[in-house]
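Worked problem 6 (solution included).
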Amino acid sequence: MSELGRQTLKNVRATRHAYSMLETLFLACLIYLFITRSKKSKKNMRPRTLDGELKELIARSNENTGIALEIKRYLLSIAISNENHEEKFSDAHIAKAQEILDHAGPSAFYWMSDIAAQLAQLAASQINGVATNVNIELGESATAKDIIRVVVRP
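Solution. The predicted structure is:
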C-alpha cells in the first residue's frame, strides 16, 4: 500500500472516531434535556382526571378562603388597636401586613383596597342617609369591628 493510501486510511479512521465522539456527546445532551424537561413539566402539569381537577379547585378555594380570613383578622386587629389608642403603623402591624402580602401577593393588596373602597362607600351612604345592608344587619348601633365582620366576608 502506498504512503498516500496509508495516510487516507488514517484520516478516515480519525474522522470516524471524531464522528462517534460527536454522536455520543449529542446523545448525552439529548438525554439530559429530556430528563430535565420531564421534571419541569411534572411541576406545571395539570391533572388529567375530574378527581384531580376537583382536588385542585378545592385546594385553591381553601387557600383563597384562608387568605381572606387572614386579611379579616388583620383588619380586626387594626380596629382593636385603634380602640385601645395603640401606636399606628407599629412594627408588628407592618410585619403582619408584609407577611400577608408575601403570602398572597398582589391579590391581597387589591382585596384590601376593595375593602377600603366598600367602607368608604358605606360611610358615604351613611352621610347621605341611604340605607344599606349593613344598617339592616347591625341596626342602630355598630362598632368598627361589627362593620368589618359584615363587610368582609370571604
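Discussion: The CA atoms of residues 126 and 132 lie 8 Å apart.
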